């Protein structure tokens, strides 16, 4: 890739110009990486509910569409670097929306995975180094050659493009022998769900759990619980079609639409009193019990919680990226997935070419897909 190093790359990208507007496949310019940045070639990408919430405007703390921006997630090859030592040209990497600088107070202790400088920030649209963007259109929005427009970054990743530039803190090197299509799942949903079970809740063998919401994150929680030896896993979802997809470790299914009583009463009946852990993965704040909040929540939403409810040996906590420190912990998690500790194949339910990106949004809106993988660029395995 030496022929492109230090030069502006012109490539195709999917750009959105306003809320709910179709993404447009168009040419953009991608600048070279600056200090502590990495420019990478995208192999695979996908769409998660965070993207969908930002695109529809439901997640109001996402960037507003004052101009265009790219959306997010998945898997790539390093094209060039700017003063970075832990990755080099040709390395296989995955991006993370939650970074790890390795130097700040948070990164050097084990209490949190929210790096002081590179933690997830839905409002961040510019690079840390100089407050600029590395993307611009090759023409203006109407097709003219004057007044080219900047294209903004999103959630530290911006991967609906053949090339992107990332802060090095958000780039994780992985084994080049890893199945890259499956490894792309570790950038977001699977790590978030499995980590919520392993790191945030630290579920124990022989315990019981309930998972509210059987999308990709909820099913990843269930898969993480299964891998840890949890004895019974109750899956709760109002969409009956998800129950077939939900065979990833789930032992019991509950559809609230089929009940004449509250869900928590049904769970108490099934479990003779309740479960040891529950995970809220729908973005609905009406959870109960010892609960880990994993979903993305519409704005504004508040918890309907009385402080006295926590006195009965109950806890409630949130989880970002499953509590994983990306650069120091994700490579080991990838190795565990390669060994089959966590099964990744069932999460990929659809595959489409990059040009069909708007169809992927529709699949997600219709709840007909867990993860649809887009092949952004073709590549030759080393």
Automatic annotation (TrEMBL):
Sequence ranges assigned to domain Alcohol dehydrogenase-like C-terminal in this UniProt record: 217-331
Cofactor(s) demanded: Zn(2+)
A biological process term (GO) from this entry: formaldehyde catabolic process
Gene Ontology terms for molecular function: S-(hydroxymethyl)glutathione dehydrogenase [NAD(P)+] activity; zinc ion binding
Record key words, sorted: Metal-binding, Zinc
GO cellular component: cytosol
Alphabetized Pfam families for the sequence: ADH_N (PF08240), ADH_zinc_N (PF00107)
Signal peptide: none
Subunit architecture: Homodimer.
Protein name in the entry: Alcohol dehydrogenase
Originating organism: Brassica carinata (Ethiopian mustard)
Organism lineage: Eukaryota, Viridiplantae, Streptophyta, Embryophyta, Tracheophyta
């Amino acid at each position: 890739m030496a022929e492109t190093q230090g030069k502006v790359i012109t490539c195709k990208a999917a750009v959105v110009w306003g809320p709910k507007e179709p993404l447009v496949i168009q040419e953009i310019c991608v600048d070279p990486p600056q200090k502590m940045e990495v420019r990478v070639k995208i192999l695979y990408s996908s769409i998660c509910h965070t993207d969908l919430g930002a695109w529809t405007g439901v997640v109001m703390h996402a960037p507003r569409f004052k101009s265009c921006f790219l959306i997010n997630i998945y898997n790539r090859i390093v094209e060039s670097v700017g003063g970075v030592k832990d990755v080099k040209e040709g390395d296989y990497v995955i991006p993370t929306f939650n970074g790890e600088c390795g130097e700040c107070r948070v990164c050097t202790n084990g209490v949190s995975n929210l790096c002081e400088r590179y933690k997830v920030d839905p409002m961040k649209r510019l690079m840390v180094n100089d407050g600029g963007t590395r993307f611009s259109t090759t023409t203006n929005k109407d097709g003219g050659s004057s007044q080219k427009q900047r294209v903004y970054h999103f959630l530290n990743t911006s991967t609906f493009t053949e090339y992107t530039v990332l802060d090095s803190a958000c780039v994780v090197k992985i084994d080049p022998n890893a199945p890259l299509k499956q490894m792309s799942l570790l950038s977001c949903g699977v790590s978030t769900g499995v980590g919520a079970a392993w790191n945030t809740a630290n579920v124990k063998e022989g315990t019981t759990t309930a998972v509210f919401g059987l999308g990709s994150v909820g099913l990843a929680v269930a898969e993480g619980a299964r891998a840890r030896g949890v004895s019974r896993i109750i899956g709760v979802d109002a969409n009956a079609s998800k129950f077939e997809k939900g065979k990833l470790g789930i032992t019991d299914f509950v559809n609230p639409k089929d009940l004449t009583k509250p869900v928590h009463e049904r769970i108490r009946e099934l479990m003779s009193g309740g479960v040891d852990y529950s995970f809220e993965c729908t973005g609905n704040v009406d959870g109960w019990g010892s609960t880990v909040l994993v979903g993305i929540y519409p704005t504004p939403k508040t918890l309907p919680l009385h402080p006295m409810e926590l006195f009965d040996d109950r806890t409630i906590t949130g989880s970002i990226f499953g509590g994983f420190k990306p650069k120091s912990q994700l490579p080991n998690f990838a190795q565990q997935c390669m060994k089959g500790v966590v099964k990744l194949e069932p999460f990929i339910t659809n595959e489409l070419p990059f040009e069909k990106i708007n169809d992927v949004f529709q699949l997600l809106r219709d709840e007909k897909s867990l993860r649809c993988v887009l092949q952004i660029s073709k590549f030759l395995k080393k």
